[in-house]
Design goal:
This protein has 25 helices and 23 strands. It is an alpha/beta fold and about 800 residues long. Among the domains are: about 140 residues, P-loop containing nucleotide triphosphate hydrolases (Rossmann fold, 3-Layer(aba) Sandwich); about 140 residues, no CATH class. The strands form nine sheets. It has a five-stranded parallel sheet, with helices on both faces. Strands 3-2-1-8 form a four-stranded mixed sheet. A hairpin with a 2-residue loop joins strand 16 and strand 17. About 40% of the residues are buried.
């Protein structure tokens, strides 16, 4: 059969056949939608399912999903992780490794302190060579600790972030983010030399980091504006000063490969005085001298042979004659970035514009060809590094100290919004590509978040029906950050996305970001914040009739209620889902905890996630038991009403108080019950009694006139009851005589208040009262009064109605 023009179909009519296509290439522009990538992450005792469509789902982690005890990496794995923590080598010709000048004393001192297990903070201004010194000390300390050397960056990192980074650098635990308590236990077992560069906190936060890792020795690099360690901290302080004049001259001579002339030496002296000997300034000055040498050589070649004159960039300045290339002025040497950039390639200058637009973040060299539009643009990073315009920060590069300000003054920030928008569009496409792993997105997190921060407050106008670009970038990058366990970047992306969706008026996207923020807060254990975010998301999705999103939000909200223990309308067993969140659609298959004796079958899918099934089964058992107990109590009440309806009318002792007191007395033989406010004739004040008025009725009697007592249908020859053997009504309270002595109505060997049948007539129940004579011990209310007062009960006329039980 022709696939383009199908003929008669044996298995269907012509109306159901696909119409013929116009050409073979008509489907080339169509592509199958990329399936949403989900990921499972264990955060503490919670299982997080990252869902970029309807919102992430979170539940208690099933036993078979919980990771085991993480193992420490081997030496080879640590070496690989250490290489990954360093910035990539810029492409281009290999540069000779320069030895560090005038830092040997500091280097040896730092190694001695670390070998003794001391933590050291190396303080120096930007451009003083802190990172270069850290690299040398790290090489000297490879064999000092059992877990080797761990390199971390403190740039935009909190204490919690650094602890998690340290954990994953030493332990092999993919897709596992331990909770704070477990994290502290695991990092206490790490014994390593931790090289921490560009830290941004001090004081008590630094004390917390050091106290949590007692077996680690930290080498911390910071600038003077970072808060110092606390006074009681055991951190050694080492200050890094500038180079002397001879050291600066040596750096310049290494750059040009020759001895400086007298004019250049005088120029280097002026630079040393102005820069206070910062090594970075001499590296940049050496690049200026090297560019001057290249210009002199190139102008000589052009003058003599005309080489490459026709291919020079139109934007580059005209070359001066070789003898007329002057030394940079002192002002240009003090702010050398614009002059250095003007002598670089067009790709390098374009990379600088992107870096300025992203707040100093230099995109990875693999992204430069796509951003700039030049297949060889990755070499631009090598040019910038050789000129001292960029410096390493962790595994990335940033503009060096002071370069951002200098380039902004030179006009490199004029088109910053457009550059940031271009970077955002590129990162949106790249982060959503199926071949890009979450770990790669997390490695580029700083540049992605920088682009997002620029375009959120200044959104570019989008075409009609087109999603806001900031919202698209946040929706694409945030799930990757969550799957890569970079929770701080996840939070920043979600907050930027929520703000962008609010400004753009996209309610559905705003609901998604609120949902994700609620799930993130739940991972952090912030229940109040999680409840607020989830309720906001549910409200927005309810207004949009988004049933699937609402269901996901209610599941997460039910877990919040379960953890906080305040589910409305549900008692202590609050682990199950709320009834209104049980929907058949979009509900994942239920999970039954392994080995739970109370769960023998799988519940239908309508019950949702399985994190509440164990409690649900226990709640059902409790409900069955409670129902049986309630039936027994109601049966007892009905029986008591039927047997005592007649004889209780004349027996005030058979009137049951609606609010009996079970408290201990005050030492006067009473139970602490409140006295009656209406005095009876001939007696002291008594409480108004309440009694069953009939089967199925429980209340107080309104008729104060007692009726004639009925004769008991059975008589026990061994027992004598009050009122001639009539009343068997329970009397939980006692009445008082005028003298204040208690007058119990009935007594029995037991004070449990249970109903026992008579020996002579099994069909007639006999109720044992809950009180005992004063001369005996009551096990329910404690020892009674020891006064020898006779046990008599007063009626409304002052006539005793019965006496204590006589054996």
């Amino acid at each position: 059969m022709d696939p383009i023009n199908p003929g008669p179909d044996e298995h269907g009519d012509a109306a159901s056949r696909r119409p013929p296509r116009e050409s073979l290439t008509s489907d080339f522009g169509q592509s199958t939608p990329v399936l949403a990538r989900t990921a499972h992450v264990v955060a503490g005792d919670l299982l997080l399912t990252v869902n970029p469509v309807d919102g992430s789902e979170i539940e208690p982690c099933p036993p078979f999903e919980r990771p085991g005890q993480p193992r420490k990496r081997t030496a080879a794995e640590r070496a690989e992780a250490e290489r990954a923590a360093r910035p990539p080598v810029p492409p281009g010709p290999a540069q000779p490794a320069l030895s560090l000048l005038e830092r040997q004393d500091e280097r040896e001192r730092l190694v001695r302190l670390l070998a003794r297990g001391r933590s050291v903070r190396l303080t120096g201004p930007g451009g003083s060579g802190r990172s270069a010194l850290l690299d040398l000390v790290a090489e000297d300390c490879l064999d000092l600790a059992p877990d080797g050397v761990v390199r971390l960056t403190g740039f935009h990192r909190t204490v919690s972030d650094l602890l998690h980074d340290l954990f994953h650098a030493v332990y092999d635990a993919p897709r596992h983010r331990p909770d704070p308590d477990e994290l502290r236990v695991l990092v206490r077992e790490i014994g390593a030399v931790v090289v921490l560069d560009d830290i941004e906190f001090g004081g008590t936060a630094l004390d917390e980091l050091l106290d949590t890792t007692p077996e680690c020795a930290f080498l911390i690099a910071a600038t003077p504006d970072v808060p110092a360690p606390s006074e009681g901290s055991a951190v050694e302080e080492v200050f890094l000063s500038g180079l002397d004049r001879a050291g600066g001259v040596e750096i310049l001579e290494r750059a040009v490969g020759r001895v400086l002339t007298e004019e250049e030496a005088n120029w280097a002296g002026d630079l040393w005085f102005e820069s206070e000997g910062l090594p970075l300034r001499f590296v940049q000055a050496g690049a200026l001298l090297q560019q001057r040498e290249e210009l002199r050589a190139s102008t000589g070649a052009v003058d003599e042979y005309g080489v490459f004159e026709d291919v020079r960039d139109a934007g580059e300045p005209a070359l001066e004659p070789a003898d007329e290339v002057p030394l940079p002025s002192l002002g240009e040497a003090a702010a050398p970035a614009p002059l250095l950039a003007s002598r670089l390639s067009a790709s390098a200058r374009a990379a600088l514009r992107f870096a300025v637009a992203l707040g100093g973040e230099v995109p990875h060299q693999a992204h430069l060809p796509a951003l700039i539009g030049d297949t060889h643009a990755d070499a631009a990073l090598g040019e910038l590094a050789r000129c001292g315009l960029v410096s390493p920060v962790g595994a990335r590069y940033r503009l060096a100290a002071g370069v951002q300000t200098q380039l902004e003054a030179a006009g490199y920030a004029d088109d910053a919004p457009a550059q940031a928008l271009a970077a955002a569009e590129h990162y949106t496409w790249w982060a959503g590509h199926p071949s890009v792993t979450p770990q790669r997105v997390c490695a580029e997190a700083d540049a992605v978040l920088a682009a997002l921060a620029v375009i959120v407050p200044h959104p570019a106008p989008s075409a009609e029906g087109e999603e806001n670009r900031a919202v698209r970038l946040a929706r694409t990058a945030a799930p990757a950050f969550a799957a890569g366990l970079h929770f701080s970047a996840w939070e920043r992306a979600l907050r930027s996305g929520a703000e962008a969706s609010r400004l753009a008026g996209e309610v559905s996207e705003q609901a998604y970001f609120h949902h994700e923020l609620g799930v993130l807060a739940l991972c952090f254990g912030q229940l109040d914040r999680a409840r607020a975010e989830l309720e906001a998301s549910i409200g927005l999705r309810g207004a949009l009739a988004d049933k699937r999103g609402t269901t996901a939000g209610r599941r997460a909200l039910a877990l919040v209620a379960d953890r906080s223990g305040d589910v409305p309308g549900i008692v202590a067993t609050a682990g199950e889902e709320l009834p209104e969140v049980r929907h058949e659609e979009s509900a994942p298959p239920p999970y039954v905890p392994f080995g739970d004796p109370l769960v023998t079958t799988r519940l239908p899918a309508a019950t949702g996630r399985g994190w509440g099934l164990g409690r649900l089964a226990r709640r059902n058992l409790v409900a069955v038991g409670s129902g049986a107990l309630l039936a027994a109590v109601l049966g007892t009440v009905v029986t008591l009403g039927m047997t005592s309806n007649e004889n209780a009318d004349k027996n005030p002792a058979g009137k049951v108080d609606v609010n009996p007191s079970a408290s201990q007395g005050t030492g006067d033989g009473t139970l602490g019950a409140d006295p009656n406010q209406t005095p009876s004739a001939g007696t002291g004040p008594t409480r108004p009694a309440a009694r069953p008025t009939g089967p199925g009725t429980y209340g107080t009697t309104d008729d104060p006139t007692p009726s004639q007592p009925a004769t008991s249908p059975s008589a026990d020859p061994g027992h004598t009851t009050g009122t001639g053997g009539g009343g068997t009504t329970p009397t939980p309270s006692k009445s008082r005589t005028k003298s204040g002595s208690p007058t119990p109505s009935k007594s029995s060997p037991s004070s449990t208040g249970t109903s026992t049948p008579s020996p002579t007539d099994s069909s007639t129940p006999t109720v044992t009262p809950t009180t005992t004579p004063p001369s005996t011990t009551n096990t329910a209310s404690g020892p009674a009064s020891s006064s020898p007062a006779s046990a008599s009960q007063s009626t409304g006329t002052g006539t005793p109605t019965g006496s204590g039980t006589v054996m």
